[in-house]
């Protein structure tokens, strides 16, 4: 029986889905300038889902360092509802949205459930309001579970990690152009500025500039290599948001009031999604990764496990879906397809939030598979144990 497990996993990873609440958007108002409106979930077809938190919502901001509530100056750029928000990432370790205002070094973490916002005072990023080169405009979650952000000119590549339940910021260095880039420079305003970024399963990053140029970032060499230019977009389309959806495709969005497009990363051909046609989106975020077959598994949007980077010997199974009832089975496989841990959990009223101790599993990559009472697959997700 064991010899059949790995082919079953490979088959599972090859399935595709059309999940609801596929990714998240930092949306703006219908305005010629950058003007934040709300954070919202987005459906797979490009239509808006639930509004999570908006410009008029009551903001309860708590300082991470001071561990107290703070009152922010709403006339400045340094506050949680600044109109110049333009960088967003999804932190799956706590179902949080992490974001930064353009003219500020502040990092904010929005808990989707409680709506509490944590202010991470960031002295690492050197953002100067009058220097457009320094503004953080690209942000994404890496495959290792950490969050990464890059400023316009690539002169700061920062990592936001979590240690002892606290966010820690590190400067990883300067990203330079690959020698082959020629006139398509990552560091030049007309070819490389703005846009957004995504991560792949090898912990590389792809940066999409406003003009539609695509650069692949090697984290080891800190170089940006020009991949090509997106085709299939309207002439005046401004690429401002990018995220990987549950099918493993890249969704791109514009701040200028336009439709969303789905992009094949292999050939950079974009096809318009059938959803809304006049959204103003400054950034996108998701829990999925390019070139990761796990992204395409047949799963439910409200069934998840976290963290994906495990350094404290536990993972949490989170379910918030009334369609899931009774007992579920959690099975963990190693890279050979061998089951190394399995357990049964009980779901009550469609809700579950329970930790699983990993019994000192050795460092490496594993697949966590969750199935319902009927045997239907609810989720299959890759984790990396780093302890």
Walk me through this protein's architecture.
The protein is mainly β and 387 residues long. 3% of the residues lie in helices and 44% in strands. The chain has 2 helices and 30 strands. Strands 4-8-7-6-5 form a 5-stranded mixed beta sheet, with no helix packed on it. Strands 13-17-16-15-14 form a 5-stranded mixed beta sheet, with no helix packed on it. Strands 24-30-29-26-27 form a 5-stranded mixed beta sheet. β9 and β10 form a beta hairpin.
Shape: globular
**Number of DSSP helical runs:** 2
- Domain count, please report it: 2
Strand content: 35-45%
Overall mean confidence score, pLDDT? 88
CATH class placement of the largest domain: Mainly Beta
**Class from secondary-structure proportions:** mainly beta
User: What name does CATH use for the topology of the largest domain?
Assistant: Neuraminidase
Please describe the biggest sheet, giving its number of strands, its sense, and whether it closes into a barrel: 5 strands, mixed
Q: Report the radius of gyration as a whole number of Å.
A: 20 Å
Number of strands: 30
The CATH architecture classification of the largest domain is 6 Propeller
Question: What is the CATH homology-level superfamily of the largest domain?
Answer: TolB, C-terminal domain
Q: What is the share of helical residues?
A: under 10%
Low-pLDDT sequence parts: 1-19
The termini sit apart by 31 Å
Q: In which order are the strands of the major sheet placed?
A: 4-8-7-6-5
InterPro entries: Quinoprotein_ADH-like_sf, Secre_tail
Pfam family, one: Por_Secre_tail
Organism: Chryseobacterium indoltheticum
Protein name: Por secretion system C-terminal sorting domain
